Amino acid sequence: MSLPYGQSYPLLGASGTAITVSTGNGVPADKQKLSVQFTASGISSGNGVFSIQVSNDGVNWITYNRLNDNVTNTNAQFDTRVASCTLSTNTSKMYFFPEGDYFKMVRCLVTVTTDGTYSATLFVG
Known about the structure:
The chain has about 120 residues and is an all-beta fold. It has strands at about 5-10, 20, 35-40, 45-55, 60-65, 65-70, 80, 85, 90-95, 105-115, 115-125.
């Protein structure tokens, strides 16, 4: 049985173009739990490099460098934070936003080399 997380929003269009998700597009401003799932399929020799950008005005976009990677570490270590995710096989990967980070808009960019189909979905809880 799976538990519902909340709502999900696509961050990439069918052609890999960025879709901006904002508090004005149905995302409640009071949501503090955000995650993003990057997915790759149809890769034979290429890869896709995903990055997240955030903005409060829709004009000035900043690369978000605080995605928490879903990796194992010891209790003495802090969360592993990254600015991008490279997928070079047919797989998916999940990242989390630290609670308390706030911005009005988020979008995803992907740089594709050679081949593959890529998607990104923002989950809001």
